[in-house]
Design a protein that fits this description.
globular; Spore Coat Polysaccharide Biosynthesis Protein SpsA, Chain A; 8-stranded mixed β-sheet; 19 helices; 8 strands; 529 residues; alpha/beta
Length: 529
């Protein structure tokens, strides 16, 4: 069994450092290529860039189609009565003759005789770990209340409020007060303080929820609950699960052949405060929501992100989450993948977890907080070195072809994140600047502009779907606010370049230079009244 921990800085080998440098070198190499090619062979570069634009044009079409497909899937599954489906699963047959059962539910019932369920729904328990640092009660309480609003038996739900000692005495008092106010509504509820001075941990969420997970393990042992049948969902302070989430998760868990080797990923939708956030943040939040919807339809690309669920048994096997990285959510996929020798998948749960768009106290602080959040997400590029190191290590038993495919997609995803938008928008202009007398270089911006203009048609799909996702407009805003929700999309090039691409490049450059992010910069969460 190989060691699944991220090595400390002083323990990183040259091989590990090589793979940390790879994403940054590739990204900067791609961005410098237009200048080099324009100097030596602008005609060849024009052919390349037009081909590149056409590839991304068709990718955009596929993305738009996937967005529509994902929206329909999400809408249909939110309308299902998951309790009736669970009743059928418990009985092993359809016991609601007048219910309109989906075809996949009928197939699940038909195979129970040949492949019995891992466990019955009545045997499942849930633990909800809510991680908090310095968020106010106005942020935390609606999250707890959204869990309680679930159409699920709360006597089978354990609440764990994981708070930080470094948050101060006020945070500690708030956590204990919330547990006192709500403990009677759950099977059990505990507040767990994460000490601030544990050696070897980076300052981040991973250490907090890992410490809470170990306390939860003690609680389950005390109550004689089987870890194999306990599902653990991690939530950030502002995460509010849909009322069918726990039921849909239970159904999927019981239908899984061997859930120890599966993570369950609901769909993060950033709409809690979408009416309050500034326009650039609204565009970024909506784009992130669509991307999560598209990923849910691509299981081979799906990874743990933000809120996710795993069986307690699997978490014990991986010694919970990593305490050495600030991106513990996405890293948990790889941690589990190597612990189980490549036998690990992520199943989508087509119910939303509603989250906040970035909103801090003041416009400038909000702009800065948004960049910090994206920079932290982009630090997932650090997993490239981890995957290469563990996958090619002596004693690794992960399937080699599967490893190479996953590593290739991981590199492509992060490099594209940093370079695709800049290449599409800026690269066609460079040959005309460097070689103004070259006919092909002169015509390239016009041809590229035509393709880009046609591609904008996909923006209307995003615009229409974004309006469907909007929660009701708060009474404090007038109807003209609806118009701003449409006009905001003119900011898309700005947010794409100055936030998404820049944040990814910043993280990859720091990683390339060995300037590691050793602290989880918590996104400030403000509330408008």
């Amino acid at each position: 069994m190989i060691d699944i921990e991220i090595p400390y800085k002083q323990d990183k080998t040259r091989f590990y450092r090589f793979w940390e440098i790879v994403p940054g070198v590739l990204s900067w190499g791609i961005l410098c290529a237009p200048v080099v090619f324009s100097l030596f062979n602008p005609n060849l570069f024009a052919v390349f860039i037009l081909a590149f634009l056409l590839v991304w044009f068709f990718k955009g079409i596929v993305m738009s189609m996937r967005s529509i497909q994902g929206y329909r899937m999400l809408s249909r599954q939110q309308k299902l009565n998951w309790q009736l489906l669970i009743d059928d699963l418990e009985a092993g047959k359809a016991i609601h003759p007048h219910a309109k059962n989906p075809s996949w539910h009928i197939r699940n019932l038909s195979r129970i005789d040949e492949a019995p369920l891992f466990c019955r729904p009545s045997e499942v328990y849930h633990a909800i770990i809510i991680a908090t640092y310095n968020e106010s009660r106005e942020i935390l309480e609606p999250t707890i209340q959204s869990v309680l609003a679930s159409k699920y038996d709360m006597s089978k739900v354990i609440l764990v409020l994981a708070y930080e000692e470094r948050g101060g005495t006020q945070v500690e008092a708030q956590a204990k007060r919330l547990i006192k106010d709500y403990s009677a509504k759950f099977r059990n509820a505990i507040a767990v303080q994460h000490p601030h001075d544990i050696e070897g941990e980076v300052i981040g969420k991973g250490g907090n929820i890992t410490y809470a997970g170990r306390e939860l393990q003690k609680l389950l042992s005390k109550e004689s609950l089987d870890p194999e049948k306990v599902l653990v969902t991690t939530l950030d302070a502002d995460n509010r699960p849909h009322h069918w989430y726990l039921s849909a998760l239970t159904y999927t868990f019981c239908s899984t052949e061997d859930p120890r080797y599966v993570s369950y990923q609901p769909i993060p939708i950033f709409t809690n405060n979408i009416w309050d956030a500034p326009a650039p943040m609204r565009v970024i939040a909506t784009g992130n929501s669509f991307w999560n919807i598209v990923l849910s339809l691509r299981p081979h690309m799906l990874r743990n992100f933000s809120s996710h669920a795993q069986s307690m048994a699997a978490l014990i096997d991986t010694d919970f989450w990593s305490v050495r990285t600030i991106v513990e959510d996405g890293h948990q996929f790889w941690r589990t993948y190597f612990r189980f020798d490549g036998k690990h998948e992520v199943y989508p749960i087509f119910t939303p977890i509603y989250q906040d768009a970035v909103l801090a106290e003041g416009y400038r602080r909000t702009l800065k907080a948004q960049f910090t959040q994206l920079q932290r997400w982009a630090w997932g590029a650090s997993d490239i070195a981890y995957v290469a190191s563990k996958g090619f290590a002596k004693g690794s038993k992960v399937p080699r072809i599967d490893l190479l495919m996953k590593l290739g997609r991981l590199i492509d995803g992060h490099v594209s994140w940093a370079t695709a938008s800049l290449t599409i928008l800026v690269a066609p202009l460079i040959p005309a600047v460097i070689q103004p007398d070259n006919f092909v270089a002169d015509q390239l911006p016009r041809m590229a502009s035509t393709i880009q203009t046609i591609a904008l048609s996909g923006l209307f799909v995003s615009l229409l779907l974004s309006l469907k996702f909007l929660p009701p407009r708060p009474e404090r805003y007038k109807r003209r606010r609806n118009l701003f929700m449409v006009v905001q999309w003119v900011l898309l090039p700005f947010t794409t370049l100055l936030y998404n691409s820049a944040a990814a490049l910043y993280s990859q450059t720091r990683l390339m230079m060995g300037r590691y992010l050793g602290k989880f910069e918590v996104t400030e969460k403000a509330v408008k009244k």
